[in-house]
Write a structure and sequence with these properties.
alpha/beta; six-stranded mixed beta sheet; 20 strands; 34% helix
Length: 417
C-alpha cells in the first residue's frame, strides 16, 4: 500500500464554498483520498504513522478541471478551416504536447470537445499506456454536425434522426466518453451562425441515444434558437450560450434562461478566448505600432464585451451555473501556462466572486463532465488530484496563477520553488 500525507497551510473547500484556515492534511492511499483533517488531529489516523509525509506550502485546492479544450489546436491563430488540412500524425503529436502543458499548469482533468478522425482517441491511448503524462482525459472524439455545419470537416456528419443515432454509436465504438454536438454554426466558413443546425427530432435522437448508453452531451450554441432546441431535447451542458436572435442581435431571452435554470443545465461560457487575443494585441502595442485592422479588432471586442457583460450578469442572476472551459488551443488561445487560470479569472470580471469562479473551474466543471463523484473537491473517496498556490485566491483570483505544487492521482507531478 502506497500511503502519503500531503499537508498545506490552509484549504479551499470547493464543495461548500468555504476556506479552512488552519493547517490541513490529506492522507492518500494509492490514488484515493482516505482522510482530510487538521494536521494536529490527523496524526491519530491509523494510516498516518507509516505514511510518507510531504509538505505542500500555501493554499490547497483540488486540481483544476478544464471542461472544454481542443488538444489538436495550435493556438497560434490557425483557423479550423486550415487546421483540418494538417496531417493527423502531426495533430496527435501536437495534442499530446498540449495535454502535457495543461497538466503542468495545474489542470488535472480535461474534456476534449472535438478532434479530427482518431487523433483524440490516440492521445488518450498514449496516456493510458504511460507513453505521455497527461491530465485525466475525457474525450468526445469527432463532434456530431450537419452537412456543411460547424466543424463538419472533422465531424460525424448526420442528417435525420436515424443517422444521428448511428453517429452516436460509431463514436461509442471508437472510444468517445461523451458526445459533442454542434447545435449551431460557428467559425467554420460554410456554417450558418444565425439558425439552428439540427432539428428537434435530430437533436433529441442524439441526446437520447447518448443517455441510453450512460454518457453525457454538450452542445455548441451561438444563437438563441439553437439553444432552445438543445434545451428542449435534454442537453446536459450548453457551450458558449450566446443569446443572439435570428437577426444577429444580442438579446437576452428571459423565458429560455428560466428553462435552463429550472432544468439545472450547466453553461460553459468560454469567456477568455476573445480576451486573450486582445491581451496579445495590447502587449504587442507596447513594442510596435498596431495595424488599423488590429486597432479595430480591439475596439470592436471592447464594445462587444461591454454588451455581453450585461447579458452574462442576467444569466448569473437567473441562477444558471457557469462552468469554466477554455476552448483552447483554438484560434489565438494556447493551452498551458496560466491559460485556464485566465479563463477562471474572466468569471470574476463578470461579477462572480473569486470563490464562485474557483468553484466554476473545479466542482462545477467536474459536474459538467459527469466526474464530480471523482474530482473537483478534496473529499474522502475522491481521486487525489491536488494543487497548492501561494496567496489567498478566494480573495484575489490572480493568486490562482501562483502554483506551488501539482499532485496527480496521488503522485507528485511538480513541486515549484
Amino acid at each position: 500500500m502506497n500511503t502519503k500525507v500531503f499537508s498545506g497551510d490552509r484549504m479551499i473547500d470547493t464543495k461548500n464554498g468555504k476556506v479552512i484556515n488552519n493547517k490541513i492534511s490529506i492522507i492518500v492511499e494509492n490514488e484515493s483520498i482516505i482522510a482530510v483533517d487538521s494536521s494536529d488531529k490527523i496524526t491519530s489516523h491509523p494510516a498516518y504513522k507509516n505514511a510518507e509525509k510531504i509538505e505542500l506550502s500555501g493554499t490547497l485546492l483540488p486540481g483544476l478541471v478544464d471542461s472544454h479544450v481542443h488538444l489538436i489546436g495550435f493556438g497560434d491563430g490557425t483557423t479550423g478551416d486550415v487546421l483540418v488540412k494538417t496531417d493527423d500524425n502531426l495533430l496527435a503529436i501536437n495534442g499530446a504536447q498540449n495535454a502535457i502543458k495543461h497538466l503542468d499548469s495545474g489542470v488535472t482533468t480535461l474534456r476534449d470537445l472535438g478532434a479530427k478522425n482518431m487523433t483524440g482517441y490516440m492521445i488518450k491511448e498514449a496516456s493510458r499506456r504511460g507513453i505521455i503524462k497527461t491530465p485525466d482525459l475525457i474525450m468526445s472524439g469527432r463532434p456530431i454536425t450537419i452537412i456543411g455545419g460547424h466543424l463538419h470537416w472533422f465531424g460525424e456528419v448526420a442528417t435525420g434522426a436515424n443517422e444521428c443515432v448511428a453517429a452516436v454509436r460509431r463514436l461509442l465504438r471508437d472510444g468517445s466518453d461523451m458526445i459533442k454536438i454542434t447545435a449551431t454554426g460557428g467559425s467554420t466558413g460554410t456554417s450558418n451562425v444565425k439558425v439552428p443546425s439540427f432539428n428537434l427530432d435530430e437533436m433529441k435522437a442524439i441526446i437520447d441515444e447518448a443517455h441510453k448508453f450512460g454518457i453525457h452531451t454538450a452542445a455548441h450554441c451561438v444563437n438563441t434558437e439553437g439553444m432552445r432546441i438543445a434545451v428542449e431535447a435534454g442537453i446536459d451542458t450548453i457551450i458558449h450560450g450566446r443569446f443572439i436572435n435570428q437577426d444577429g442581435v444580442l438579446e437576452f431571452d428571459e423565458a429560455l434562461a428560466d428553462q435552463i435554470a429550472e432544468k439545472g443545465i450547466l453553461l460553459n461560457a468560454t469567456l477568455h478566448q476573445g480576451r486573450e487575443r486582445i491581451w496579445q494585441l495590447e502587449k504587442k502595442a507596447t513594442k510596435q505600432e498596431l495595424t488599423l485592422q488590429e486597432k479595430d479588432e480591439i475596439e470592436i471586442f471592447n464594445e462587444n464585451w461591454d454588451e455581453a457583460k450585461v447579458v452574462w450578469n442576467k444569466v448569473i442572476d437567473k441562477g444558471i451555473q457557469l462552468v469554466s472551459g477554455s476552448d483552447a488551443s483554438w484560434q489565438h488561445y494556447k493551452l498551458g501556462g496560466t491559460s485556464f487560470q485566465d479563463e477562471i479569472h474572466a468569471h470574476v470580471s463578470l461579477g462572480m466572486s473569486p470563490m464562485e469562479a474557483i468553484q466554476s473551474g473545479t466542482i462545477y466543471s467536474a459536474k459538467s463532465c459527469w466526474v464530480d463523484d471523482e474530482v473537483g473537491s478534496l473529499e474522502v473517496g475522491k481521486i487525489a488530484n491536488i494543487i497548492s498556490v501561494s496567496g489567498n485566491p478566494e480573495n484575489n483570483i490572480k493568486d490562482l496563477r501562483n502554483l506551488k505544487s501539482i499532485i496527480h492521482r496521488g503522485k507528485v507531478h511538480k513541486l515549484f520553488d
